[in-house]
Amino acid sequence: MAGQDKVKTILISQPKPASDKSPYFDLADKYNMKIDFRPFIHVEPVPGQEFRQERIDLEDHTAVIFTSRNAVDNYFRICEELRFAVPDTMKYFCISESTAFYLQKYVVYRKRKIFHGKARFADLMDSIKKHSKEKFLLPCSDLLKPSIPHLLEEAKINYTKAIMYRTVCSDLSDLSDVTYDMLVFFSPSGIESLFKNFPDFKQNATRIAAFGPTTVKATEESGLRVDVSAPNPKAPSMSMAIENYITGKG
Protein backbone atom coordinates (compact mmCIF):
# COMPACT_ATOMS: atom_id res chain seq x y z
CA MET A 1 0.00 0.00 0.00
CA ALA A 2 1.35 3.41 -0.96
CA GLY A 3 2.06 5.85 1.78
CA GLN A 4 1.85 9.58 1.60
CA ASP A 5 5.50 9.84 2.69
CA LYS A 6 6.66 7.86 -0.34
CA VAL A 7 5.56 10.33 -3.01
CA LYS A 8 7.14 13.70 -2.40
CA THR A 9 7.86 14.88 -5.94
CA ILE A 10 5.59 14.70 -9.00
CA LEU A 11 6.14 15.82 -12.58
CA ILE A 12 2.97 16.56 -14.58
CA SER A 13 3.66 16.33 -18.33
CA GLN A 14 1.44 19.32 -19.15
CA PRO A 15 1.80 23.12 -19.01
CA LYS A 16 1.43 24.77 -15.62
CA PRO A 17 -2.24 25.67 -15.02
CA ALA A 18 -3.06 29.33 -15.62
CA SER A 19 -5.34 29.43 -12.58
CA ASP A 20 -4.24 29.18 -8.96
CA LYS A 21 -7.34 27.07 -8.34
CA SER A 22 -5.86 23.93 -9.91
CA PRO A 23 -6.43 20.77 -7.81
CA TYR A 24 -2.73 19.97 -8.24
CA PHE A 25 -1.80 23.03 -6.19
CA ASP A 26 -4.24 21.88 -3.50
CA LEU A 27 -2.59 18.44 -3.52
CA ALA A 28 0.87 19.95 -3.15
CA ASP A 29 -0.25 22.06 -0.16
CA LYS A 30 -2.28 19.32 1.50
CA TYR A 31 0.43 16.67 1.39
CA ASN A 32 3.51 18.90 1.39
CA MET A 33 4.62 17.68 -2.03
CA LYS A 34 6.62 19.32 -4.82
CA ILE A 35 4.62 19.25 -8.06
CA ASP A 36 6.28 20.52 -11.23
CA PHE A 37 4.76 21.01 -14.69
CA ARG A 38 6.55 20.45 -17.97
CA PRO A 39 4.93 19.78 -21.36
CA PHE A 40 6.45 16.64 -22.92
CA ILE A 41 4.91 17.55 -26.27
CA HIS A 42 4.12 20.81 -28.01
CA VAL A 43 2.37 22.01 -31.13
CA GLU A 44 4.11 23.44 -34.19
CA PRO A 45 2.07 25.18 -36.91
CA VAL A 46 2.09 23.95 -40.50
CA PRO A 47 3.16 27.01 -42.56
CA GLY A 48 0.54 28.42 -44.90
CA GLN A 49 2.69 27.74 -47.97
CA GLU A 50 3.04 24.08 -46.99
CA PHE A 51 -0.68 23.80 -46.28
CA ARG A 52 -1.42 25.26 -49.72
CA GLN A 53 0.22 22.18 -51.28
CA GLU A 54 -2.58 20.05 -49.80
CA ARG A 55 -4.93 21.68 -52.34
CA ILE A 56 -7.70 22.10 -49.76
CA ASP A 57 -10.09 24.86 -50.81
CA LEU A 58 -11.15 26.69 -47.63
CA GLU A 59 -13.85 28.52 -49.57
CA ASP A 60 -15.44 25.22 -50.48
CA HIS A 61 -16.55 24.53 -46.88
CA THR A 62 -19.63 25.83 -45.08
CA ALA A 63 -18.83 24.60 -41.56
CA VAL A 64 -15.79 24.00 -39.35
CA ILE A 65 -15.34 21.38 -36.62
CA PHE A 66 -13.07 22.40 -33.74
CA THR A 67 -11.74 19.72 -31.37
CA SER A 68 -9.44 22.07 -29.39
CA ARG A 69 -8.20 25.62 -28.95
CA ASN A 70 -5.14 24.70 -31.01
CA ALA A 71 -7.48 23.85 -33.88
CA VAL A 72 -9.20 27.24 -33.52
CA ASP A 73 -5.92 29.19 -33.46
CA ASN A 74 -4.41 27.36 -36.42
CA TYR A 75 -7.55 27.53 -38.56
CA PHE A 76 -7.72 31.33 -38.30
CA ARG A 77 -3.92 31.59 -38.71
CA ILE A 78 -4.07 29.59 -41.95
CA CYS A 79 -7.02 31.69 -43.16
CA GLU A 80 -4.98 34.82 -42.56
CA GLU A 81 -1.84 33.45 -44.21
CA LEU A 82 -3.84 32.34 -47.26
CA ARG A 83 -5.81 35.61 -47.24
CA PHE A 84 -9.11 33.81 -46.97
CA ALA A 85 -11.86 35.98 -45.48
CA VAL A 86 -14.02 33.68 -43.37
CA PRO A 87 -17.66 34.39 -44.34
CA ASP A 88 -20.13 35.45 -41.65
CA THR A 89 -22.32 32.51 -42.70
CA MET A 90 -19.71 29.94 -41.56
CA LYS A 91 -21.05 27.49 -38.97
CA TYR A 92 -18.83 26.34 -36.12
CA PHE A 93 -19.12 23.00 -34.31
CA CYS A 94 -17.01 22.89 -31.13
CA ILE A 95 -16.21 19.87 -28.96
CA SER A 96 -16.94 21.78 -25.73
CA GLU A 97 -18.49 24.98 -24.45
CA SER A 98 -15.08 26.36 -23.46
CA THR A 99 -13.77 25.81 -27.01
CA ALA A 100 -16.88 27.55 -28.36
CA PHE A 101 -16.33 30.55 -26.07
CA TYR A 102 -12.69 30.67 -27.20
CA LEU A 103 -13.98 31.57 -30.67
CA GLN A 104 -14.66 35.05 -29.31
CA LYS A 105 -10.98 35.70 -29.90
CA TYR A 106 -11.71 35.66 -33.64
CA VAL A 107 -15.44 36.20 -34.27
CA VAL A 108 -18.35 38.15 -32.83
CA TYR A 109 -19.82 35.26 -30.86
CA ARG A 110 -23.48 36.30 -30.70
CA LYS A 111 -23.63 36.92 -34.45
CA ARG A 112 -22.40 33.48 -35.50
CA LYS A 113 -23.95 30.03 -35.74
CA ILE A 114 -22.02 28.12 -33.08
CA PHE A 115 -22.81 24.66 -31.73
CA HIS A 116 -20.97 22.75 -29.01
CA GLY A 117 -20.85 19.37 -27.33
CA LYS A 118 -20.01 18.34 -23.77
CA ALA A 119 -16.26 17.56 -24.24
CA ARG A 120 -16.76 14.19 -25.99
CA PHE A 121 -16.76 14.15 -29.78
CA ALA A 122 -19.58 11.60 -29.76
CA ASP A 123 -21.80 14.22 -28.05
CA LEU A 124 -21.05 16.75 -30.78
CA MET A 125 -22.12 14.28 -33.48
CA ASP A 126 -25.80 14.94 -32.70
CA SER A 127 -25.43 18.57 -33.84
CA ILE A 128 -23.31 17.61 -36.83
CA LYS A 129 -25.89 15.06 -38.00
CA LYS A 130 -28.63 17.71 -37.80
CA HIS A 131 -26.61 19.78 -40.29
CA SER A 132 -25.46 16.89 -42.45
CA LYS A 133 -25.91 18.85 -45.68
CA GLU A 134 -23.02 21.15 -44.77
CA LYS A 135 -19.51 20.58 -46.12
CA PHE A 136 -17.31 20.36 -43.03
CA LEU A 137 -13.65 21.24 -42.56
CA LEU A 138 -11.82 19.46 -39.72
CA PRO A 139 -8.66 21.40 -38.73
CA CYS A 140 -6.45 19.00 -36.77
CA SER A 141 -2.95 17.86 -35.91
CA ASP A 142 -1.11 14.93 -37.46
CA LEU A 143 -2.16 12.88 -34.41
CA LEU A 144 -5.93 13.02 -34.81
CA LYS A 145 -7.78 10.43 -32.71
CA PRO A 146 -8.95 7.66 -35.09
CA SER A 147 -12.39 7.65 -33.42
CA ILE A 148 -13.15 11.14 -34.81
CA PRO A 149 -12.97 10.34 -38.55
CA HIS A 150 -14.59 6.98 -37.79
CA LEU A 151 -17.67 8.67 -36.30
CA LEU A 152 -17.89 11.17 -39.17
CA GLU A 153 -17.57 8.48 -41.83
CA GLU A 154 -20.03 6.21 -40.06
CA ALA A 155 -22.60 9.03 -40.20
CA LYS A 156 -21.71 9.67 -43.88
CA ILE A 157 -20.70 13.28 -43.14
CA ASN A 158 -19.08 15.20 -46.00
CA TYR A 159 -15.85 16.47 -44.45
CA THR A 160 -12.22 17.28 -45.23
CA LYS A 161 -9.41 16.53 -42.81
CA ALA A 162 -6.98 19.48 -42.78
CA ILE A 163 -3.66 19.01 -40.93
CA MET A 164 -2.81 22.56 -39.81
CA TYR A 165 -0.42 21.79 -36.93
CA ARG A 166 1.82 18.99 -35.72
CA THR A 167 2.35 17.44 -32.30
CA VAL A 168 6.08 17.08 -31.64
CA CYS A 169 8.24 15.89 -28.75
CA SER A 170 9.69 18.64 -26.55
CA ASP A 171 13.38 18.84 -25.66
CA LEU A 172 13.65 17.61 -22.06
CA SER A 173 17.42 17.25 -21.90
CA ASP A 174 17.63 19.65 -18.94
CA LEU A 175 15.72 17.07 -16.87
CA SER A 176 18.35 14.35 -17.33
CA ASP A 177 19.72 14.71 -13.80
CA VAL A 178 16.36 15.29 -12.17
CA THR A 179 14.36 12.46 -10.62
CA TYR A 180 10.71 12.40 -9.53
CA ASP A 181 8.77 9.94 -7.42
CA MET A 182 5.91 10.07 -9.92
CA LEU A 183 5.53 10.95 -13.61
CA VAL A 184 2.05 11.79 -14.93
CA PHE A 185 1.08 11.27 -18.59
CA PHE A 186 -2.03 12.24 -20.54
CA SER A 187 -1.33 10.87 -24.03
CA PRO A 188 0.67 8.22 -25.87
CA SER A 189 2.70 11.10 -27.33
CA GLY A 190 3.95 11.92 -23.83
CA ILE A 191 5.30 8.38 -23.44
CA GLU A 192 6.90 8.63 -26.88
CA SER A 193 8.58 11.89 -25.83
CA LEU A 194 9.90 10.28 -22.62
CA PHE A 195 11.77 7.60 -24.58
CA LYS A 196 12.85 9.95 -27.35
CA ASN A 197 14.49 12.18 -24.74
CA PHE A 198 15.67 9.37 -22.45
CA PRO A 199 16.07 6.16 -24.50
CA ASP A 200 17.63 4.35 -21.53
CA PHE A 201 14.89 5.32 -19.07
CA LYS A 202 14.42 2.74 -16.34
CA GLN A 203 11.32 2.98 -14.17
CA ASN A 204 12.68 1.31 -11.03
CA ALA A 205 10.79 2.87 -8.09
CA THR A 206 9.28 5.73 -10.12
CA ARG A 207 5.50 5.62 -10.08
CA ILE A 208 3.73 6.28 -13.37
CA ALA A 209 0.23 7.73 -13.65
CA ALA A 210 -1.62 7.50 -16.98
CA PHE A 211 -4.87 9.20 -18.01
CA GLY A 212 -7.17 7.41 -20.43
CA PRO A 213 -7.10 3.88 -21.88
CA THR A 214 -4.89 4.76 -24.87
CA THR A 215 -2.25 6.29 -22.58
CA VAL A 216 -2.38 3.27 -20.25
CA LYS A 217 -1.96 0.96 -23.25
CA ALA A 218 0.97 2.95 -24.66
CA THR A 219 2.66 2.97 -21.24
CA GLU A 220 2.34 -0.78 -20.80
CA GLU A 221 3.43 -1.49 -24.39
CA SER A 222 6.58 0.51 -23.66
CA GLY A 223 7.38 -1.95 -20.90
CA LEU A 224 6.47 0.40 -18.06
CA ARG A 225 4.33 -0.29 -15.01
CA VAL A 226 1.18 1.80 -14.55
CA ASP A 227 0.73 2.53 -10.84
CA VAL A 228 -2.11 5.07 -11.14
CA SER A 229 -4.76 5.21 -13.85
CA ALA A 230 -7.66 7.58 -14.33
CA PRO A 231 -10.50 8.02 -14.84
CA ASN A 232 -11.75 5.17 -12.68
CA PRO A 233 -14.90 4.53 -10.58
CA LYS A 234 -13.30 6.09 -7.49
CA ALA A 235 -11.60 8.99 -9.26
CA PRO A 236 -12.91 10.71 -12.40
CA SER A 237 -9.90 13.08 -12.44
CA MET A 238 -6.16 12.48 -12.36
CA SER A 239 -5.69 14.66 -9.26
CA MET A 240 -8.22 12.53 -7.36
CA ALA A 241 -6.57 9.31 -8.54
CA ILE A 242 -3.17 10.55 -7.34
CA GLU A 243 -4.62 11.53 -3.96
CA ASN A 244 -6.25 8.11 -3.57
CA TYR A 245 -2.92 6.47 -4.39
CA ILE A 246 -0.82 8.43 -1.94
CA THR A 247 -3.37 7.93 0.84
CA GLY A 248 -3.70 4.23 0.14
CA LYS A 249 -7.31 4.46 -1.06
CA GLY A 250 -6.61 3.78 -4.69
Per DSSP E runs of 2 or more residues, the count of β-strands stands at 11
Largest sheet: 6 strands, mixed
How many domain units? 2
- CATH topology of the largest domain, by name, is Rossmann fold
Oligomer: single chain
Unreliable runs, pLDDT <50, ≥5 residues?
1-5
- For the record, give the distance between the C-alpha atoms at the N and C termini, rounded to a whole number: 9 Å
Percent range for β-strand residues: 15-25%
Architecture of the largest domain, according to CATH?
3-Layer(aba) Sandwich
Summed up, the helix count is 9
Helix proportion range: 25-40%
Largest sheet, order of strands side by side?
3-8-7-4-5-6
- Our Rg estimate from Cα atoms comes to 20 Å
Q: Report the structural category.
A: alpha/beta
Residue-averaged pLDDT? 93
The CATH class of the largest domain, by name, is Alpha Beta
C-alpha geometry: elongated
How are the SSEs ordered, and which strands pair?
Elements: E1 9-12, H1 23-31, E2 34-37, E3 41-45, H2 48-52, E4 63-66, H3 69-81, E5 91-94, H4 97-102, E6 113-116, H5 121-130, E7 136-141, H6 147-154, E8 159-169, E9 182-185, H7 188-197, E10 207-211, H8 213-221, E11 228-230, H9 238-246
Helix pairs in contact: 7-8
Structure description:
The chain is an alpha/beta fold and about 250 residues long. It has two domains: about 5-40 and about 185-245, Rossmann fold (3-Layer(aba) Sandwich); about 45-165, Rossmann fold (3-Layer(aba) Sandwich). It is about 30% helix and about 20% strand. It is built from nine helices and eleven strands. The chain has helices at about 25-30, 50, 70-80, 95-100, 120-130, 145-155, 190-195, 215-220, 240-245, and strands spanning about 10, 35, 40-45, 65, 90-95, 115, 135-140, 160-170, 180-185, 205-210, 230. The strands form two sheets. It has a six-stranded mixed β-sheet. Helix 7 packs parallel to helix 8. The chain starts with 8 loop residues before the first strand and ends with a helix.
